[in-house]
Amino acid sequence: MKFLVLLAAIGCASAASSNAVTCDECRAGTVALVDHLLTDASLAEQTEILKAVVCPQLEDADACTATIDMWFNDIATCIYNHFIVETDVCTEFGICKKASIFTPRDWTCEECTNLLTMASAVMEDEATVAEGVEYLQGECFCGADGHSADCADMVAGIVPLAMPVLAGVLVDQEVELCQEILGVC
Asked: Would the pTM count as exceeding 0.70?
């Protein structure tokens, strides 16, 4: 028993000395990331990237372009809030499972870029893409007013191509995002 107590104390001490990001810091950072990704400027950039990369892969590129122009902002709002905030990536990545004995401090560039890289890997994972398609086919997107009967098919055709592209952009821009959102790097 004493060994377990000693082991736990050593673990807590080493975690505290590691200056790891706290659960609250992580959650505040994820909300700030979603807020940034949903700005008009960021949505416009993401829209252009998707039209340039995803639409040429589809049989009807013009229809894809029109769909992305019309619906991407709503899709992004559903996807980013669901996968980043509601899913609680901080718990998923083990940050909120750590003992909360840390003193709040500033993020490091490495912590920020590592978390964005992990988030990107989750976004492009086949299971996550399938969950994203299913989620968008539900109440958040296809179930919302204004969608036609072919919404589910549209989501199934575009989203599996779009999520890995957006995941790649997240990694490509991780330093810039860390600078803009958290002031690091």
From this structure: yes
